Amino acid sequence: MAKKYRSKKALERGTNAVIYIILTVMSVVWLFPFFYLLLQSFRGEPGAATLYFWPHEWTFNNYIKLFTDTQTFNFPKWYGTTLIISVVVTVLQTAIVLVTSYALSRLRFKMRKPLMNLMLVLGMFPGFMSMTAIYFLLKLVGLTQEMGLVGLILVYVASSCMGYYICKGFFDTIPKSLDEAARIDGASRHTVFIRVILPLAKPIIIYTVLTAFMAPWGEYMFASLMAFGNQDYYNVAVGLKDMLKQETLYQYFTRFCAASVIISVPITALFIWLQKYYVQGVTGGSVKG
Q1: Number of C-alpha atoms within 13 angstroms, CB side, residue 15?
Q2: What Å distances lie between residue 136 and 54, 59, 81, 126, CA to CA?
Q3: Partners of 140 in the beta sheet?
Q4: Is the alpha carbon torsion for 224, 230, 233, 239 positive or negative?
Q5: Whole-angstrom Cα distance, residue 168 to residue 121?
Q6: What is the mean pLDDT of residues 124-152?
Q7: Residue 56 neighbours by CB under 8 Å, 6+ apart
Q8: What CA–CA distance (Å, rounded) separates 286 from 173?
Q9: pTM of the predicted model, to two decimals?
Q10: Rounded mean pLDDT of the chain?
Q11: How many CB atoms lie within 10 A of CB 180?
Q12: 84 Cβ contact partners less than 8 Å away, ≥ 6 residues apart
């Protein structure tokens, strides 16, 4: 019996060792491009393609020039524009998703299930299918280029309610008896939502905030169409892509790497800070549909 137990433990240790090795290799593969990008951001020599890995000359000038040399590429303006769009979209989209999910989870009305199915099916179609039509509609009402910031916010927020399913699944796990007890005490639907449900829904709120912030932060396709080649209306994704043009690649590649590191900081910091709640929101929202 003891021999069988030792064999089982040895098999478990061997299996765990193989799993850890695989995970370690995968982590190295995933992290290597980011490590390389970080190294290149401190490289003093210009050029994109080098035959060596470690920089020969270390410098912090790539970061400094991003904010001081704005004649060719105005990174601070791109960064500020993207931050404004992301914050506004995060607030509006989070509010819309939460109230939509609560209504679909708690209220019963005609065409509720067909409406949910319709939103789920429409959400499966990629956004670029209607991108050209949306652009010309926004152009007709003057929401492109100089008003592109408003147009982008409108587009990003317009379909927010179609991302209801994870949040609704989380609300389904909260007992309805809490709502009923509050209603018996005279609380309105609004009071129940604000005072009872939201304090219990912190993980899904944080999950919704993170996903809402990430989408406009790194979005390129529609933002590039709205800017229409005018650098004054770029976001960071479109601006950094512009740095990689053939005529500017040699001089600005290391500065591009520095900018990439800077724009990754907010997302990385938010994920590290709120990782526990993010995981709870995903797992809690997948229990029921």
Answers
A1: 6
A2: 48, 45, 22, 18
A3: none
A4: positive
A5: 16
A6: 81
A7: 43, 44, 45
A8: 10
A9: 0.81
A10: 83
A11: 11
A12: 149
Is the distance from CB of 240 to CB of 259 less than 8 angstroms?
A: yes
CB 243 within 8 A of CB 259: yes
Tokens of 46: 């210009």
Residue listed under structure tokens 């600005």: 252
The two structure tokens encoding residue 167: 């949040």
Q: Which pLDDT value is given to residue 287?
A: 47
Locate 274 and state its tokens.
Answer: 């709120």
State both tokens at 80. 């500020």
Give the C-alpha separation, 63 to 254, whole Å.
Answer: 9
Eight-class DSSP state of 198:
H
The model's pLDDT over 188-197, given as tens digits with 9 standing for 90+, comes to 888 888 888 8
Closest CA to 284 of 222, 203, 209, 219: 203
DSSP string, 95-160: HHHHHHHHHHHH---TTHHHHHHHHHHHTTS-GGGGHHHHHHHHHHTT-SGGGHHHHHHHHHHHTG
**Among candidate residues 123, 77, 81, 94, the one with its CA nearest the CA of residue 213:** 94
pLDDT per residue as tens digits for the range 155-198: 888 878 777 888 888 888 888 888 888 888 888 888 888 888 88
Q: Return d(Cα 286, Cα 289) in angstroms, integer.
A: 7
How far does CA 60 lie from the centroid of its chain?
Answer: 28
